[in-house]
């Protein structure tokens, strides 16, 4: 026996319960990485046989066919055939089939078995099949396929030991006399063969309780359906903001406490400033979004696991089609309201490359939560809290308007992109809508943990590096003792601001705003802190210094400038992490560069139009 | 029994059998995907739902024991022959 633990891969159709089986076999000890050169996730975990010998288990992306129609399916095909870069040839393949959907899932299974790979079939979700009125005979299926078949119920941990034993014996007795039972003509022939074998395995079939279909009569109702979706989204956004208040407070409190501890325990100087302002301040300002991101993902994971997400995509498809996208873009764009980073990562589920690129390029236009602090302070300072109708305040209306502004902007941009840079035939919207299922708490928690970990790792690396660079730009060169200039003015960032100032002057921004825009490249909400710092340093006396930022803004900015500032933030790509994640997901600098240029251009034009209209109206 | 029609014109809850598919109206990729989802000549289908707000797009179909969504543009390329057994009590 070799010293290296055998590699076992899980393959199967989407919605076969493959990931639930993977979670049941490996537990929470999972590792997520990317296959080299592609943006397909490689999910691996450890698994032990009954005698304690270890094996590596990899969850391959769900596939309908070995004839790939997406990057995901290409990776699955590559791994199964032993051709995938960054993966050794698997020692065994567990093919996961939905017992209630055999005639369809057998297609892919037959393709894999035909290759002569060492396969064990997991006939999964047996309980749901029985509930559906299906009685299956695994022995008959085993006979027809010529490979071991083990009935399983992953979510109830049923059949796992049998599965493990079957895989073990498969590893020990390398098959040498496989008799492929597959017809030679692929594709059309496969479907017929799959149906024939499924018929053999089905002992009896009665019309079971079709509660899933009954639920769809409501959820996919042409008028009630959209209303329910709207209600679900409303609750979700309420929760993202309402539930996150307390944990955000804890994180802020904790980072203040750490900063204070560092301040008292370290001697004053460069290192201390660096740790407090650069490291704790920079990373802390990003980590505060963790609660909102987790709440958002809790909802998304629940909606996905229950099967509702595909219904949401179905409901939204027609609307998305009007701007050249499909219902599949809906989920990534929805996530982008919390943060564009998970949104852009979620575009991996879009199979059409042009659709996916368009979705990535417009995702930053969705009003992410980092814009909220900026919007909140400007609206609070310049928009009077008057009532424009029963229960409708002007401030809230302006905030709502900014969200709508972003959505309309994204729709127009998508439409323009689809007829220019991402021009091509409109992709279809072919999607399986799985049966509704009760989400399993364990699967949800594992998913949440993985998202949190990915986010924190990014905050610790890319975001940390970006904030450090900005902090250095603001700190160096050091202003000479005898100079009348402030540190901010004298710093590299201050000098850059002097260059930018004449460019943004026509749209109503002064040099102080230009200066605030530089650190805001790291994260938008930093603009607020940067303005506060600049105005605090420039304050002529202590009395002026004591004024709140709101009061200072009111005395220094005109209303047109404030409105232009808001319009700027609707479009400006002021988030280095988004640019970094776009680079990673598009494999190069071409598209992130394009995104940054077009968004800055839009921001400039929008701020300009706003400023000059407001001035002309005498505001 | 009504004669052959296309999938987009089929009425809700109507079962049918696919009799022909105009593969030239569908891209290779989409065609492969359609077949992978079980839509091919001879497949029994049932139209379950159609789009929101009275629009006939996209269409939700039952194919075997699976529900899938297709756009009207694809449904138009799929010729079906309605079968009698329909409307479960």
List the helices and strands and how they pair.
The complex is a heterodimer of chains A (619) and B (89).
Chain A: E1 7-12, H1 18-26, E2 30-34, E3 41-48, E4 54-59, H2 71-81, E5 92-98, H3 102-114, E6 119-124, H4 126-131, E7 134-136, H5 138-145, E8 149-151, H6 160-172, H7 188-201, E9 202-205, H8 211-219, H9 224-242, H10 245-265, H11 270-287, H12 290-306, H13 308-321, H14 330-335, H15 340-346, H16 353-362, H17 371-382, E10 387-389, E11 392-393, H18 394-418, E12 431-433, H19 441-475, H20 487-490, H21 492-504, H22 511-517, H23 526-538, H24 542-545, H25 549-556, H26 559-571, H27 576-586, H28 590-616
Parallel strand pairs in A: 1-4, 1-5, 5-6, 6-8
Antiparallel strand pairs in A: 2-3, 3-4, 7-9, 10-11
Helix pairs in contact in A: 3-7, 5-7, 9-12, 10-11, 11-19, 12-19, 15-27, 16-18, 17-25, 17-26, 18-26, 21-22, 22-23, 26-28, 27-28
Chain B: E1 5-6, E2 15-21, H1 28-36, E3 44-50, E4 59-63, E5 66-70, H2 72-75, E6 78-82
Antiparallel strand pairs in B: 1-6, 2-3, 2-6, 3-4, 4-5
Largest interface: A-B, 43 and 38 residues
Which regions of chain B are unreliable across 5 or more consecutive residues at pLDDT < 50?
none
Strand order of the largest sheet of chain B: 1-6-2-3-4-5
The strand count of chain B comes to: 6
User: What is the percent of helical residues of chain B?
Assistant: 10-25%
Shape of chain A: elongated
Helix content of chain A: 55-70%
Main sheet of chain B, how many strands, which sense, barrel?
6 strands, antiparallel
Structural class of chain A: alpha/beta
Overall geometry of chain B: globular
Distance between the termini of chain A: 81 Å
Key descriptive features of the protein:
heterodimer, A: 619 residues, alpha/beta, seven-stranded mixed beta sheet, 28 helices, B: 89 residues, alpha+beta, six-stranded antiparallel beta sheet, 2 helices, 6 strands, 15% helix
What does this structure look like?
The complex is a heterodimer of chains A (619) and B (89). By secondary structure, chain A is of the alpha/beta class. Chain A contains 28 helices and 12 strands. In chain A, the strands form 3 sheets. A 7-stranded mixed sheet of chain A has the order 2-3-4-1-5-6-8, sandwiched between helices. The longest helix of chain A has 35 residues. Chain A is elongated, with a radius of gyration of 28 Å. Chain A starts with 6 loop residues before the first strand and ends with a helix. About 1% of the residues of chain A have low confidence. Chain B has 89 residues and is α+β, with helices and mostly antiparallel strands. Helix content of chain B is 15%, strand content 35%. Chain B contains 2 helices and 6 strands; from the N terminus they run E-E-H-E-E-E-H-E. Chain B has a 6-stranded antiparallel sheet. In chain B, strand 3 and strand 4 form a beta hairpin. Chain B is globular, with a radius of gyration of 12 Å. Chain B starts with a strand and ends in a 7-residue tail after the last strand. Chains A and B meet through helix 3, helix 7, helix 13 and strand 12 of A and helix 1, strand 3 and strand 5 of B. Strand 12 of chain A pairs antiparallel with strand 5 of chain B.
């Amino acid at each position: 026996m070799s010293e290296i633990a055998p590699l076992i891969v899980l393959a199967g159709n989407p919605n076969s319960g493959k990931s639930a089986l993977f979670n049941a076999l490996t537990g929470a000890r999972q590792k997520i990485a990317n296959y080299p050169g592609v943006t397909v996730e490689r999910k691996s975990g450890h698994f032990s046989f009954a005698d304690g010998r270890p094996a590596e288990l990899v969850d391959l992306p769900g596939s309908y066919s070995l004839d790939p129609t997406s990057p995901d399916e290409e990776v699955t095909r590559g791994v199964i055939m032993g051709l995938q870069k960054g993966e050794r040839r698997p020692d065994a393949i567990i093919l996961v089939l939905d017992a209630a959907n055999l005639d369809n899932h057998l297609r892919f299974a037959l393709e894999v078995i035909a290759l002569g790979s060492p396969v064990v079939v997991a006939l999964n979700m047996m309980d749901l099949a029985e509930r559906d009125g299906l009685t299956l005979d695994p022995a008959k299926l085993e006979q027809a396929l010529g490979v071991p078949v083990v009935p399983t119920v992953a979510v109830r941990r049923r059949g796992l030991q049998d599965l493990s034993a079957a895989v073990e014996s498969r590893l020990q007795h390398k098959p040498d006399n496989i008799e492929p039972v597959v017809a030679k003509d692929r594709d059309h022939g496969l479907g017929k063969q799959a149906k024939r074998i499924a018929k053999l395995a089905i002992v009896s079939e009665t019309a079971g309780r079709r509660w899933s279909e009954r639920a769809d009569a409501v959820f996919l109702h042409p008028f009630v359906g959209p209303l329910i979706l709207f209600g679900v989204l409303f609750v979700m956004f309420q929760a993202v903001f309402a539930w996150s208040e307390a944990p955000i407070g804890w994180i802020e409190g904790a980072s203040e406490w750490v900063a204070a501890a560092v301040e008292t325990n370290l001697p004053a100087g460069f290192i201390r400033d660096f740790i407090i302002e650069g490291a704790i301040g920079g990373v802390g300002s990003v980590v505060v979004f963790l609660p909102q991101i987790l709440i958002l993902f809790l909802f998304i994971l629940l909606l996905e696991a229950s099967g509702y997400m595909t219904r949401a995509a179905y409901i939204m498809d027609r609307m998305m089609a009007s701007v050249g996208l499909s219902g599949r873009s809906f989920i990534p764009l929805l996530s982008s309201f919390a943060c564009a980073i998970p949104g852009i990562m979620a575009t991996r589920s879009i199979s059409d490359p042009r659709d996916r690129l368009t979705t990535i390029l417009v995702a930053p236009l969705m009003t992410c939560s980092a814009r909220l602090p900026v919007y909140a302070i400007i609206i609070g300072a310049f928009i009077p809290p008057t009532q424009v109708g029963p229960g409708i305040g002007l401030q809230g209306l302006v905030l709502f308007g900014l969200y709508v502004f972003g959505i309309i902007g994204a729709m127009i941009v998508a439409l323009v992109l689809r007829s220019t840079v991402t021009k091509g035939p409109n992709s279809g919207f072919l999607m399986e809508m799985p049966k509704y299922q009760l989400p399993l708490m364990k699967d949800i928690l594992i998913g949440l943990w993985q998202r949190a970990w990915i986010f924190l790792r990014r905050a610790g690396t890319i975001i940390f590096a970006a904030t450090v660079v900005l902090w250095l730009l603001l700190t160096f060169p050091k202003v000479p003792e005898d100079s009348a200039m402030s540190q901010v003015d004298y710093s590299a960032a201050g000098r850059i601001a002097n260059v930018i100032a004449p460019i943004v002057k026509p749209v109503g921004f002064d040099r102080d705003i230009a200066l605030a825009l530089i650190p805001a490249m790291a994260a938008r909400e930093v603009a607020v802190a940067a303005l506060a710092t600049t105005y605090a340093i420039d304050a002529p006396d202590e009395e002026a210094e004591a004024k709140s930022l709101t009061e200072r803004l009111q005395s220094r900015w005109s209303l047109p400038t404030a409105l232009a500032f808001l319009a700027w933030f609707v479009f400006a790509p002021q988030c280095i992490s988004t640019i970094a994640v776009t680079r990673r997901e598009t494999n190069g600098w071409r598209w992130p560069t394009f995104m940054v240029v077009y968004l800055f251009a839009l921001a400039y034009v929008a701020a300009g139009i706003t400023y000059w209209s407001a001035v002309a109206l005498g505001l | 029994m009504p004669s052959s029609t296309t999938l987009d014109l089929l009425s809700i809850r109507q079962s049918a059998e696919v009799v022909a598919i105009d593969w030239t109206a569908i891209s290779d990729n989409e065609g492969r995907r359609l077949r992978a989802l079980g839509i091919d000549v001879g497949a029994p289908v049932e139209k379950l739902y159609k789009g929101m707000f009275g629009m006939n797009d996209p269409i939700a179909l039952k194919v075997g024991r699976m529900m899938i969504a297709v756009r009207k543009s694809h449904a138009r390329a799929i010729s079906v022959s309605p079968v009698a057994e329909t409307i479960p009590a």
